Amino acid sequence: MLVQTLTIVGVGLIGGSVGLAAKSRGLVRRVIGFGRDPANLAKARALGAIDEGVLTLADAVRDADLTIFCTPVDRIAEQVLAASAFCKVGAILTDAGSTKQVIVRDIETRLRADVHFVGGHPLAGSEKKGAEHAQKDLFVNRVTVLTRTAATADAALDTVAAFWRALGSRVEILSPERHDAALALTSHLPHVVASALAGLLPAEWRDFTATGFRDTTRIAGGDAEVWTPILQHNRPALLTALAQLDDRLTAFRQAIAKGDSVQIDQLLTQGKKVRDALGS
Amino acid sequence: MLVQTLTIVGVGLIGGSVGLAAKSRGLVRRVIGFGRDPANLAKARALGAIDEGVLTLADAVRDADLTIFCTPVDRIAEQVLAASAFCKVGAILTDAGSTKQVIVRDIETRLRADVHFVGGHPLAGSEKKGAEHAQKDLFVNRVTVLTRTAATADAALDTVAAFWRALGSRVEILSPERHDAALALTSHLPHVVASALAGLLPAEWRDFTATGFRDTTRIAGGDAEVWTPILQHNRPALLTALAQLDDRLTAFRQAIAKGDSVQIDQLLTQGKKVRDALGS
Fold it and tell me: A8: distance to nearest CA of chain B, Å?
């Protein structure tokens, strides 16, 4: 038993999967779910993702040893700070947000000194939403990034790392800045690109899409409510990534306009080499 | 029995799948495979994709009622014209190339009048290559585009359409120009984008990719030898599509730079709406 009382703030796909994963592995004595929608909490309880649903943040975190915030990135810092007022001394708070610099900075400059925050981001998910898509093995063989800053307590970082490892995840520790630079390229830029591609398709040509278009645009099905704040949070790194993509698309455009098959082949071969290295 | 003798020129993923699909459905009396690599032809025969492998184009097409060319787009026109010299009067030739204007124009201006060519493109495939990945149901519930021009013989078009329908495909008839404009957006642009995204990823950040990056870049694993001539053939439509994408990425970039969450949300919501309409 790693954690006596685990509280999950936001019991959707990620939060629900954390609950299912922790309970199915016997890592927790009790899982409390906090949310604003009683029906969703009842559903999460029926699915076995939480033991108890609570509608008041103070009640949800009062006994928690570990609280994990699985809400949209623009709500995490305020929720962590609000919840921290009701936490036990020594309680650990962490999150599953897709951006880290803004969240970690906003929390660390204002958090009381006798509770601990560790930034986190499990690189798992889906364009689907809701506890009904939660999976107990969602984090198995996935990477979870945890952040370390000058303010990070080593013991709290160790506990959160042990928790994610126990869910089957590989843990990588980065600064918030490195996390955001990496994820700008590996997640946020692909989201923008998938959305832009999907948005270009006229209805009359839907029948002429095959698996290539579907794969390339799949993540565009993600919720704008979740993704708008992610793109907002990671503005500088994302703008850099967009500029890099623009350079590369310009190289393609010029090679295609000139009919330069050697250059087109080189660009495609570079992309294939990277993609092949990732495996299926 | 729809076709007495079917010849497949280029027995890879698509050609092999045509053979398997036709044989397993009892549509053909005999399938001849033409290729330059005896080992590949032997493999295709062992897999049941062809009945006989032939290394000489003249011998491969002499008895064919229907010949389908499944080779890279920059080789199809020359192979069709070369093969046509040896075909029976009334023979039908078709192809599975991903571009249509250049191929159809090059063939129609030079083909002898007593054989028939119908441009074709099954919207099915994979980033994989080779007869070993052939599937007998690859075309089931997929769209196959056939082209109609002033030079198209209706009876030949009907035969080729009946053939693809018998393989489980839905047939759509378009002009070569409409095909290429649609596929520029639904296939060729996504390929360029997937390749550009993959090519940006530094090796140190490979561990920080999740399913989103993998889905979005999957088709970048396609063969440069296949894709370079496709991008070359469809130059004007692809440059138009690249310019449209650039406009949309610029809109994203400006909204992100300004922190305009309403505009970001609108762009994401437009993309999601289109993607949701496509289904999984």
Answer: 23
Contact A209, A197 (CB under 8 A): no
Q: What is the distance between the alpha carbons of residues A119 and A105, in angstroms, rounded to a whole number?
A: 10
Give bridge partners of residue B52 from the DSSP assignment: B32
What is the ipTM metric for this complex? 0.94
pLDDT tens string, chain A, 280 residues long: the values are 789 999 999 999 999 999 999 999 999 999 999 999 999 999 999 999 999 999 999 999 999 999 999 999 999 999 999 999 999 999 999 999 999 999 999 999 999 999 999 999 999 977 778 899 999 999 999 999 999 999 999 999 999 999 999 999 999 999 999 999 999 999 999 999 999 999 999 999 999 999 999 999 999 999 999 999 999 999 999 999 999 999 999 999 999 999 999 999 999 999 999 999 999 8
Which residues on chain A are in Cβ contact (under 8 Å) with B218?
212, 215-216, 275, 280
Residue with tokens 């698996």: A211
The reply to whether residue B253 touches residue A239, judged by beta carbons under 8 angstroms, is yes
Q: How far is B261 from chain A (nearest CA, A)?
A: 6
Is A256 in contact with B268 (Cβ distance < 8 A)? no
pTM above 0.90, yes or no: yes
* Cα(B197)–Cα(B216) distance, integer angstroms: 8
User: Cβ separation of B244 and A216 shorter than 8 Å?
Assistant: no
Closest C-alpha to A73, from A235, A239, A241, A199:
A235
- In 3D, which of B64, B57, B39 has the Cα closest to residue B159? B64
Are the Cβ atoms of A275 and B220 closer than 8 angstroms? yes
CA distance B226 to chain A (A): 10
Are B265 and A238 within 8 A, CB to CB? Answer: no
